[in-house]
Amino acid sequence: MSRFLVCACSVVILFGSVVRADSFRAGVAKVDITPEKWPIRLVGSFSLRLAEEVHDPLHARSLVLDDGKKSVSLTVVDNCLIRRDVLDQAKQIASEKTGISAANMLISSTHTHSAPPVTTKAETPQEKAYLKLAINGIAQSIVAAHENLQPAAAGFGSSSVPDEVFNRRWFLKPGTMPANPFGETTDLVKMNPGRGPHLISPAGPTDPEVAVLSVQNAKGKPLSVFANYPLHYVGAVPRGQVSADYFGEFARLISVRMRASGDGFLGILSNGASGDINNVNFRDGRPPREPFEQIRQVAGKVADAAYVAVGETRYAKDITLDMRERVVTLQVRKPDEDLVKRCRSYLEKEDKDKELPRLAKAYAQRVLNHIEEPDEIECKIQAIRIGETALVTLPFEVIVEIGLDLKSRSPFENTVVVELANGAYGYLPTKEQHALGGYETWLTTSRVQKD
C-alpha cells in the first residue's frame, strides 16, 4: 500500500480512548447555490457545454455536530469537484463566524457533471459571480447549521444497493484495445468499453454499501440522514440544464421516506470511493430511458436502502467526537520529453486528421498545461470519529479497491470513505490498477505519484 494510504489508515488509528460526551447536539442547514447568471459552462466534459436554465437546484448541505467539547462540520456540495484553495476560503469564513476550527471541517463534492466550475481561475463574468456565490453559500450552510444546534442522538446503519454499481474498467479480447490519446496501445483495460463480444471481464470489484449516519432530535424525530454510496454521477440530465444529479434527488426522496418534509430535516448523500464505478451495465444493458429517469430510479433505490438502514439504527445520546487532519506532500507526475514532443505534434495537425487518436488534442493541451503545475502538492487527509463510526476523507476520485481496503483495515466497526473531500487532485488508482493503464491512470487524469 502506498505511503499516502498508510497515512490515511494511521490518521484513523490515532484516535484515543473514548471520553464520554457532556452533551451531544446536532444542527443542519442547506443553502441554495444555483447559478444566477446565464449562460454558464458546465464541467466534466471534453467539449464545451453551456447551461441556460435549471432542472433542479444545487445546494451546499451541512451537518454540524457538537459533543460539548468539540464541534465538527460535515458539508456536501452539489458540484463536480472543488479545489482546496476555494474550500479553504469557505472554511475560513465559516470558522470566523462559528468558532469551529477549519481543521474540524469536512467539505466534499458530490461529483455531479451538471454544475458550473468553482475555481479561482474563473474566466467569464458568470463564472466569477458563481465562484463568489458558491464560496459564500458553502460557508453560510456551516454557519446556519451551527446556529441550529440542538440536543440530539445519532447512530450508524448500513444497507446495500448492488444492482446499480458497475466497475467501468474492462479487460478486452486481444486485438480490440484502441489507442489511447497518446497514441499508445499498451493499456490492458478500457474505461466504458461499450457492449459487445470484445468484452472479457471487469478489472475490479464494486462496493454496494449504503452507509448511513442517522440523527434524531430530542423528541426522537428525524433531523438528518447523512448517507454515502460509492457511485459516480448517473447523468442523462436534460441538455443545457443545471442539476444535482442523483445526489439532489436522494436528498429530496429521503425526506419523503422519513416523513420529514418541511420539518427541518436534511438528507445528505456523499460520494464514496467510486473512481472506477458508474451506473452502466455493459454486460446486460437496460431499456432506453428519458432524461433524468435513471437518476430518479437510482436515487429511489438508494433512498429505500437508507430508509432500511435507519430502521435498524440504534441511537445514543452520549456520542463523543474527534477529528484529525494530516497534510501529506505528494509528487506531481510530469511528462517526459518524448511525450511533450508528441503532444505538440498532435496540436499542429488538422482536427480531421485520421491518424489522430480519440481525444488526442484535448489531452495534448492538458499535458502541455500540466508542465506548469507545481512539482508537489499538499493533500489533506481527515478522519472523523462519531462514536464508534469513522469517516475517512480523500481529495481524489478514489478507485474502489482503496475504499474497500481502508474499510477492512480500520479498527472501527463502521467506516465510511468520502472522496473528493477538501480538494480535488484527479484519480487515485492502486499500484496494480496503474499497471493496467486506462483512463483513470493517464497523465493529467491521475496527477500524483503512483506509489
Note down, in words, how this protein is organized.
It contains nine helices and 23 strands. The protein is an alpha+beta fold. The strands form seven sheets. It has an eight-stranded mixed sheet. Strands 18-19-20-22 form a four-stranded mixed sheet, covered by helices on one side. Helix 2 (84-98) packs parallel to helix 3 (125-147), helix 4 (245-257) packs across helix 5 (293-311) and helix 6 (337-348) packs across helix 7. The mean pLDDT is 94.
Strand element count: 23
Instruction: Give the radius of gyration.
Output: 22 Å
Major sheet summary line = 8 strands, mixed
Return the structural class. alpha+beta
Quickly count the helices. Answer: 9
Residue-averaged pLDDT: 94
Helical content (DSSP H or I, runs of 4+): 25-40%
Runs in which pLDDT lies below 50 for 5 or more consecutive residues are none
- Name the strands of the widest sheet in spatial order: 7-6-5-1-8-13-14-16
Distance between the termini: 8 Å
The proportion of strand residues reads 25-35%
Net shape:
globular
